[in-house]
Amino acid sequence: MAGGWQELISGLFRLRALTYLDVSHNRLSSLRGANRLANLRYLDASNNRLRELQEQLTSLALLQHLDVSFNRISELPRNFGLLRELRFLGLSHNRIVELPNERLDVLGSVQVIKLSS
Question: Which residues are bridge partners to 114 per DSSP?
């Protein structure tokens, strides 16, 4: 059913007025298309099978809460700093071994970062 969920959730990415999306615990391997959710403020994609965060996610200018804990992510996108409204960043239990300063320095609005392993 994992493939079916991926298709269903990809369909949700057409709902451009959506502000809150919880797709946690779905075995998702990708968030492709999520960049279409221009009004999204809350995204919980924790406990999936994500290996990367697509560069397109950085176009979610209103995003305030991003939780991608318990995935397989090894690095953040280059222009991650474009998420200027981000307040919460959940990265716990991933494969991240380094957070380059140039990707964190521009996240001046972040109030909480979770990095436990």
Answer: 90
If we measure between CA atoms, which residue out of 52, 9, 17, 1 comes closest to residue 33?
A: 9
Do the Cβ atoms of 81 and 106 come closer than 8 Å? Answer: yes
In angstroms, what CA-CA distances link 39 with 52, 60, 77? Answer: 22, 8, 20
Residue ranges in the chain assigned as alpha helix (H): 2-12, 101-104
d(CA 29, CA 53): 10
pTM of the shown model: 0.89
The Cβ of residue 12 has, within 10 Å, a number of other Cβ atoms equal to 14
CA 68 to chain centre: 5
Q: Using 50 as the pLDDT threshold, list the residues of the chain that sit under it.
A: 1-2
Tell me if 61 sits within 8 A of 82, measured CB to CB: yes
Residue 36 CB partners (closer than 8 Å, separation 6+): 13, 14, 16
How many structural domains are present in the chain?
1
* Domain span including residue 31: 2-114
